[in-house]
Design brief:
267 residues; homodimer; Rossmann fold; alpha/beta; 5 strands
């Protein structure tokens, strides 16, 4: 950039000089050299960088679980979130977390008692609702359970490919796989269809919210369900989820794997 | 940038043209106009963007606790980490986490029994060792406890300003403040000096590793110490630390605040 600037200034000086040589009788005029950094384009680029910096910081706070409950993403970050989830950033992050989980899974020495378990959340962990959120402002709109249910009932959510790879790896290693979702029991069969359509099979148990669980915080509901697993003698080695409420609480797994999700927050 | 390019091309054309006017007898030469997008500079910029993308992904994996234990930062990310910690990114992230913690602290209804507590880690939480890491590759060098001890014994680590602000806010609200550090008991007096020099005062207890605690994982050591607090009747509302081993384990705080640290990992 500095080189380009230098070249420009040099060139402009050269023109001036050569023109003066060509027309020596023209009165000298003050030469206004607009420094390129003052253009509107440059200012906009700077603002763009500033938004990127602040939204990256916001996303970091989300992923490190530093924020209190939030209902929508910051309005200024809509384009940022869109660029992230539609671009390579999200995919790279998803691949990295699955790779790390795979490395850990392979390092676990499994017992022959069949009690080594891995827990997966479903939405934004195994299945992607990105097509829904694309139509709903990438998290800018307040969550609308009626609209979202319509989407769920289509059973069309695609697999997150890197999660499917991990899922099969974990099954292949001999872990028992538990799917623990905040979806309601009434969506059991549609969820099974969607999972199958997306390539997920052979799980050991699919746990959905029963009528008793409605109204409970996800952290509590999921901890209670994990607690039942450990009471049945399961050792939960890994837990993959896009929400901290999938991962924290009690009866926590040995290692947890937080998939990125800058679009919504479930307490 | 496009405008600058246009200006340059225009200027270069002008020079060529004016020179030809000045020297009409020079033979015309083929004018090679390299399109700027193919320049080495542009390729380097693309590579730079790629490194930034991958190192951002790595940093998020660190902050979301997705990585297994690591000893040094990736070699490719040295410049990235340097730019982050020396630039505005780190400062903005530090300020955000303190602000979030402050909002939460103010929302807690304190009891009159004086048992409402907040736990702070010290290194990279209250005090910054950035001057040390600047001299040691920003985390690229394997941790050298002898060298680091020399730095600690200078008692010169500056305060992280946003943490000092939070610290005073939390004290002002009436929380009991516990400092829980992985530093050794032998460094008690130098640590007190450093904390005081940096503006930290009036904590309730400074807990350092005793000889019994050496060799314990930080997660265990810190959980045990928090457990002692809760056994004494303290309610740990908030916990601020730059390592997940400050925050996870047992006797966890109600809310935890993960300060950024892309330079080192303590299990």
């Amino acid at each position: 950039m500095n080189f380009v600037r230098f070249l420009c200034l040099f060139s402009l000086f050269s023109i001036t000089f050569s023109h003066e040589t060509l027309n020596p009788h023209i009165l000298p005029r003050p030469l206004i050299l607009e420094y390129p950094d003052n253009t509107i384009e440059t200012r906009l680029k700077e603002l763009d960088e500033e938004v990127k910096l602040l939204c990256t910081s916001w996303r970091f706070a989300v992923e490190a679980n530093n924020l209190g409950p939030w209902k929508t993403i910051p309005r200024e970050c809509v384009e940022y979130v869109k660029d992230y989830v539609m671009g390579r950033g999200y995919r790279i992050d998803l691949e990295r977390v699955s790779n790390e989980a795979g490395v850990y899974a392979k390092s676990v020495e499994l017992d022959s008692d069949g009690k080594d378990a891995w827990v997966f959340d479903i939405d934004e962990t195994l299945l992607s609702n990105l097509p829904y959120y694309q139509e709903h402002g990438y998290g800018l709109e307040i969550f609308d359970s009626v609209e979202f249910d319509k989407w769920v009932e289509k059973a069309n959510a695609p697999a997150i490919e890197s999660s499917l790879k991990l899922y099969e790896e974990v099954l292949g290693l001999g872990f028992k796989v538990f799917l623990l979702t905040g979806r309601s029991e009434k969506h059991r069969s549609i969820t099974v269809d969607n999972l199958n359509n997306a390539g997920f099979q052979n799980w050991d148990k699919l746990i959905l919210r029963s009528s008793d669980d409605h109204g409970k915080l996800a952290t509590i509901y999921k901890s209670e369900k994990r607690s039942e697993m450990t009471e049945e003698g399961y050792r939960i080695h890994g837990n993959s989820g896009d929400q901290w409420s999938d991962l924290l609480g009690f009866s926590m797994s040995n290692r947890s794997f937080k998939l990125p999700n800058p679009m919504y927050y479930i307490p």
